[in-house]
Amino acid sequence: MVNPVLLIAVPLGLAFAIPLLALLSKAAARYVPPVASGFNLIISLLLLPEVLHNPAIVSIGGWQPPFCISLVAGPVGVLFAAIIALAGLLVSVYALDYIREGATGKYHMLYLFLLTGATGVVLTGDIFNLFVFFEILCISSYALVAYQGDRSGIESGVKYLIQGAVGSSLLLIGIGLLYGQFGTLNMADLAEKIASVGSMSLFVPMVLLITGLGVEAAIFPLNAWLPDAHSSAPSSVSAILSGVAIEVGLYAVARVVFTVFGASSIFLFLAFLGVLTLLVGEMCAFSQDNIKRMLAYSSIGQIGLILFALAIATTHGVTGGLFQLVSHTLSKALLFLAAGYMIYRAGSMEISALEGMGRKMPLTCFAFTIGAFSLVGLPPFIGFPSKFLVVRAALATQETIFIVLISVALLGTVIEGAYFFRVVQVLYFCGGRHEKSSNTIKKEESDPPAGDAPVTALVPMFVFVALIVIVGVYPRLVTDVLGSAASELLNRLDYIRSVFT
Amino acid sequence: MSLLNNYAYYAGAFGLIFIGLYVILTKRNLIKVIVGLGILDTGVNLFLICLGYTSKGTAPIFSRAGLDAELMVDPVPQALVLTAIVIGVAVLALALSLAIRLYQHYGTLDLRKIREQRW
Hints:
The structure holds 2 protein chains of 2 kinds.
Chain A: H1 5-24, H2 26-29, H3 32-51, E1 56-60, E2 69-73, H4 75-98, H5 104-123, H6 127-145, H7 151-182, H8 187-194, H9 200-217, H10 225-232, H11 235-261, H12 267-286, H13 291-312, H14 315-346, H15 357-360, H16 362-376, H17 383-396, H18 400-429, H19 455-473, H20 476-490, H21 492-500
Antiparallel strand pairs in A: 1-2
Helix pairs in contact in A: 1-3, 1-5, 3-4, 3-5, 4-5, 4-11, 4-14, 4-19, 4-20, 5-6, 5-11, 6-7, 6-11, 7-9, 7-10, 8-21, 9-11, 10-11, 10-13, 11-13, 11-14, 12-13, 12-18, 13-14, 13-18, 14-16, 14-17, 14-19, 14-20, 16-18, 16-19
Chain B: H1 2-26, H2 30-52, H3 75-106
Helix pairs in contact in B: 1-2, 2-3
């Protein structure tokens, strides 16, 4: 069996090798991220069938749990590692051609650190280790948001950094409180000890942990940084932030709530928070004129839906939530990638500037349309079975409150449809007049080159399109994996037992 | 008395944490906000150290016979703090370098005047 440590060690080592390699040849350095994430994808796909029923526990340094830092490669961890590697691979292929300006070597290094941090968060079994990987993820994403060094990028980078740093400090205080109370940092050991004490003394650390992780997961009152950061970053970075970073934040929230605390009492609160996040995100997205800000707000909405589905806390609910998470990763990464070249050609981020793009760059616009339809939840794309599962799980609870909440969430979906269809209409059916707005992002290029996106951008986009359609038509391909991932999240006793044997 | 001593450390740590949060929330100058982040970090680190502290404790090394485990300082929080300090330095360095770029673009560090992005 392959050792899961490789999933973290190889990208980390390669990331540090990039600056050295860039000294020799600048062109070679940019091929490192695709190689590293391709390697991760292969390893995690090899691991996935083996860990489905029996998680692989790796004790680093040869100590036994709970004294060592352990990696828990269960279905959830390996599933997430595979998604991260898949999105990372496709987006890094896209970035080969897309990222041309500035210190490209540093971009590729930071990008690989981001992927390493994300993979580490989902695989670790130690709560302080989770914090460390989380910080690797956060610091590299602060730097990537500000990568272009323009006015808006720096401003949103600063905002993101300040909010993220406060969130991380709260997270660390929460971890400290847990360590003070229980004398352990191993999540399985914590979960075992937490089961034996009253809930009042756990309230403060739980609130601190959820708040700290919630900043990165963009749960409603903590998401002020997201629209700025996701819209000002280069499109490849937006794709990976929207497709991977916030999902990893949400994973960490779910892991803490389900496994560490087993806190069934706050599920209803989280469900409310999820629906609130959904409504706020969708309504703000509806009123945007800037296409990247619209996509960023739509990410907030999707995060809300996933949080709601996870908070249903039945097997179907969690399966649906994880499915929705996969579908959001694929669809939103595709949307940002397609939007990246549409903006590049149009010279503006305004939706009105994209009029008639469907004729100028048909393939890119086709990919964008597929992504938009999938996110709204039209069959036969992946968004349909995932949303369907969520709705079915909510109805199956037979509780009035969940039925009311899911109907509100479906209202959010209607809003989502309204603004995505508006963009698709602008792309294909609005007149050929091409007016430049004042908010042009590339002023130096007075005449942007015409034609479709280059091949390095089209290939990843159409791999995403293919995955969206294939999984949408045969959802059974993934439901087994998602089901056992859901049962890992829900059965904390099994998790504890698997770590200690 | 030792109880009082321990509480004094916790009070100091949380005092620093709240001062840091206050500075971040109320100050309008970016450099001051970053200083606030530094104070917050220091408070958190001090809090972690307090968790493992025992009065008149020694290093947890069994070098002499007759050393009692009760009298040893818990080494785990110290390891955590070392890591947390490194992370804090990285965040502060990144924040300061972003502040330099922000000043080059806007000619000011007043956060009230830097508001091009909004909901």
